Each structure stands twice: as structure tokens, then as C-alpha cells.
Amino acid sequence: MQFVYPSFLFALGLIAIPILIHLFNFRRYKRIVFSDIRFLKQFTEETRKQKKLKEWLILICRILLITCLVFAFAQPYIPSSKNKTPLSQSFVGVYIDNSFSMNAINKNGGLLDQAKQQAEALVQAFPDQQTFLFLNNDFEGKYMRELSKSEVINAIHATQLSPSHKSLQVIFNRQLSLARQLVKESGNLYWISDFQKNMEPLPKINNPSNFNIHLLPISASQNQNVWIDTAYFISPILKKGNQNKLQVFIKNESEVDFENQAIVLKMDGVQKVIQNVSCKSGERIGLSMLFTLTDFKWHELSISLTDYPIVFDDEYFLVAKAQEYLPVMVLNDETPNLALQKVFELDSFYRFTSISLQQIDFNQLSSQALLVLNEPRSISSGLSDELNRYLEKGGAMLFIPSPKPKDELSIKQFLTRVGLKMGNYESISLTVGEIESKDPLFAQVFSNIPSFSNLPQVSAYWQISPITTNYRNILSFKNLDPFLMRTHVGKGSFYAFSSSLQAAYNSLVKHPLFVPIMLNLPLQRNRPSPASFLLGEKSVFQIAVNQSENLLSMSKGKESHLISVQTKDGMAYGNLNGQINLAGVFNVKSGEIPIAKLAFNYPRAESKQGFFEPETLSEALPASIMNADLSVFKETILKEQTGDEYWKLALVLGLFFLLAEFALIVWFK
């Protein structure tokens, strides 16, 4: 036999009180004088024996009464065959799902509020000396220990909605790890959640037999969520004074259509665009919104819609900054190509520089949006290394071959490094026969494909072919040999013509395709900093900086954080490490100097509606399903923890001995 509250057994010392009363009964008898006591003496002896018997029976009743009362408070039990582990060696693990999907509602109110109420009722069902492990999706360090009953109730009350989401396997691993760390032999794990799928496969947990999982599912009354799935700029380069286009995608997983509802675009908190859209149930639609930047400063953008009850994904944040100019550098070996200079001088947005390969300053390469390698007759190993490094960092480069190279081998070796093979030089006339119109290089260029009779022609070209699978033929001759092709090197893009752009060798410089091709090439350089980042367990960001930084400050209103970053090649890379968990736009400073703005959004995994069936999940884990009615939990849980209980029997016996004592005193003469 064991006791839930063994400390009450010290109260057995109270047995000494009736014993002392019995031993030191100093009652004085009144003396009465009789003339003859022959018959009274016999009667007195018989009465004295009965009185002693009565006193001994009363003493026994009092001792047993105190013993039964003490046992009733100590709550004796015999452990069941299923659980023979004492309470001191087991624990109760309570997990509350506080992810954003728990913001849904049903007829009883919000799911998270119900989960907290049920968790508290569950905890209250256990003895006061039971130890607990509390867990929610935040995995806060202050709860990574044994908690008393009052502490776990306070933790339940403090639980709020969080952008974090953890899989069931991760939750179980954390609870099991802490249990083993605390040397707990067994435990009961109670998971209160809507058990959202989040596009995860059906979990199968490797669970030791001495840890029991109990599921308490809470579900919304209906699937109802419309959200802004994502948003991005159509062009990687934003221009001052232009109509910049923002692409927005909306997803509707409600059971009803989203009809003629307003989508609002704000810039720096001021409404700029409002557009009514409709999205049928189960569909995902895209729409474009136009905005204008009037300066070269950083601006905060937000797109929002109105939806209830799940609202965390109803707003999407971005940052925008107009680019002042795009630097383009042409590296010439001999005579510059004037056509290149003229096309980039058409738009003041491009800052054109033309230098000789013999006068190149390698430090200037990294800042260029486009490098044009114009008819090099040879490429030194040092230049090859610098150009390859520029591509690896995300640069865009155009190669125009020379019809008469001086060191053909060095050029072939350079092209091999970027994934191309240069073959024979063919002096034949060919016409461009195919255009890859969907390539980003031709974005917003064609309303229809030009006729084949009006495409550029060449009189001689190099046979260039790819040696990797990561390539695309953008312009091809009728014999399918490439005229303009692209490969990827690291983060950068390498474009190569197969023919010289001199008028004597092809007609492209006089063709309408020449201007859009050349002006779009600098736009293909990888965007140095995305318009927004996602919050989560591994939230990272990157931002362009002018100098080496080790520490940046990020602030939004009264919230401020210091973020350690690593700087490399003009970019600062940082990890939030959970410091920021609120979506929005943060100002970034180096010391007191503002350098940029960063936008963070909540992940949309919790937006998707879809939940595991409790029976299916119970069979897969395996686990037992708990009834939502917690009124009988105390009896059920104590039965699981303590087996057969005897405190009620002890209480009944105590009452019996109390009545027996009363009967002895009143009726035993």
C-alpha cells in the first residue's frame, strides 16, 4: 500500500491523546455512607468490570477513529497493474497548441481559450504533489523543468497565440528528453490541439510503452480562412516616378466564396490603392497593384484584407526603395562597340562605363549590375578568376565573342568554367529561327512573336554548346544552334552570344530586339535584398551594407533588438534566433545611422485548413482520445495514477468508529 500524501501520516501521533486521557483519568468519586454494604459490594464489583470494558472499547474506537481520519487525508492506494510507478517518479506532460490556427472559433468560443480551460481542468484533477511538464509551441526555457501545480496553471494562463509551429514528433521528443533528464520512469502526455496537418505526413512516433499519449482534439465549427498568400514586385528593380507593379496572391479555403471584398495597399501607413476582388471557395487568385515611388528613400508597404476569425495572415508587409541608377561596364579588348554605348545612353537610369581590359580595376567589378565582355582576344587566368568570382556573388555578365581571338585556348578555358563549350567557327549565313519569349529577358517585350522573316541574321558564328544542364537557349538559329544562351554560375547569370555584334557579322544591332535585350540584361542581376522575409524557427535575413558590420539594431515602435551579423562581399547576413516574433517593418541601423528597412511576415503554413481525424491520428501514434467533457477526469486520472483508492473506505470506517463511540457512551451502562 502507498499514500498520495504520506506526510499526513505524522498525524498518527494524535493517537496519544485518547491514550493519555485513558491512563490519567483522575475523576473523583463521591463518598456515600451505608449501614450495610454486603449486597452493594457484589454489585460494585460487577459494575467495575463492565466499566473497564466500556473504557477500553471507547479507547479503541477513538484510536481507530483518529487512524482512519489520518489515512483518509493521506489517501492510501494500491498501484494498479498498469501503473506501479510512484507519483514521485512519474510526471504529467501538458502541451497546448498555441499556433495561429487555434485562433479559429466554434460554438463555445475561441479554440485557444477552450484549450487553456481544458488544460487547467486537467491539471486540477491531479494531486497537489504531482509534478508537471508544460509545453507550448514557443518552447520557452523557463518551462524546461518540473513545475508544481500552481506554476503550471500560471503557465497555462500566460499562453498566447504564437507564430511558431511544432510537429507532433518534435513535441514528443522534447517531452521525452526532459523526462529522461529528470529521471522519470513513466508519465502521461496530454496534447490539446486542433491537430492541423500543415502539409505534414501522418506522424508515427516511436513511443516507449511507459509513456502514454492522450489526445484532446478541439475543432472549429467550419473551415473559414481567406489570406494573402504572398506578394512580390514584378520587376527586381524599382524606378522613381514609374508605375511599379506589385503582384499579390490570395487564397480562399473557406466554405463560402470571398466576394467583392476590398484589398488595400498602404505606403508608410497611407492608403494608396483599394481594389475589390472575388475569390471562390478553394481557389487561389493573383492580382496586380500599381504604386509610384517619388524619391530614393525606403518605404513601408502593406497589403491587407478583412477576414475573420483567423487574422494573422490578413496583412502582408514589404519594403520598397527606388534604385537611383544601374551601373553597366563594358570591357573592351580593342575597338569599343558604339552601338552598346548608344543603347545604354537612351535611358539616364543606366550609368554606362567603357574601359579597356588592360586598364581594368578589379575592385569596381562587384558594384556593376552588368559586365559586358566585348570581343576579348584573350582572357588571363587572373581576369578569369575575378569574372568567375563576380558571377558567383550574383552578377550578370554578357559575353560577345571576337571573330579573330588571339589566344583561343584561354577563351575556351574561361567558357568551360561557366558551363559552355566553344567549338568551331562557321562562316555561313544563318537566320534566327526560335525565340524563348517567356524568358525574363523578354518580360513585357512581346505582344506577339515576330515573324521568322524579320529576325536577325548572321554571316559567321562560333558553335557554342552547354556542358551542364543548367542552361537555356534564348535565341536559336534555324539549325537549332544557339545565338544567345544563358547559364547560371553560382548566384549569377552568364549570357553569351555566338557571334560578334559588329555590323559586318550580324544584323542584331539594327533589329528592334537589340534595345530590349540590352536594357533588360542589367535587370537580371540577383536582387541583393528581398522585399520581405519569413519569421520562424530559422528566421534569417540579408541586407546590402557599405562597410563591414558586426552588430545591427532593429527597431519597430518601442520594440528594439540587437542582431549579430556576418558581413561578406557587401552583404550582411543575420539570424533572428527567435528575437523577433512580431510581423511588420523594422528600421535597421548601424549605430545611430539608418541603413535600411526589413519586412517580416508570418509563415503561411498555419493558414492552410486541414486537420487530422482524431481516430486516424490515435491509431497512427498510437494514442488514446480523451472526451471533451472533463467533469469525470479527476476520478479517471487518479484511477490511472493511483489504482485502487481507499480514502473513502477510511472515511466510512472513521464515521463508523465515531458512531460506535457515541453508542458506547450513551447505551452501554
Quick synopsis:
The chain has 669 residues and is α/β, with parallel strands linked by helices.
What is the helix fraction of residues, given as a range? 10-25%
CATH class group of the largest domain: Alpha Beta
Examine the coordinates and then state which fold CATH places here, giving the name of the CATH topology of the largest domain: Rossmann fold
CATH architecture of the largest domain: 3-Layer(aba) Sandwich
Strand content: 25-35%
Q: Main β-sheet, in a few words?
A: 9 strands, mixed
Strand order of the largest sheet: 17-16-18-19-26-25-24-21-22
The tally of domains stands at 5
Name the assembly state: single chain
Mean pLDDT: 84
Overall form: elongated
Question: Which stretches of 5+ consecutive residues score pLDDT under 50?
Answer: none
Give me the count of strands: 35
**Class based on secondary structure composition and strand pairing:** alpha/beta
Number of helices: 12
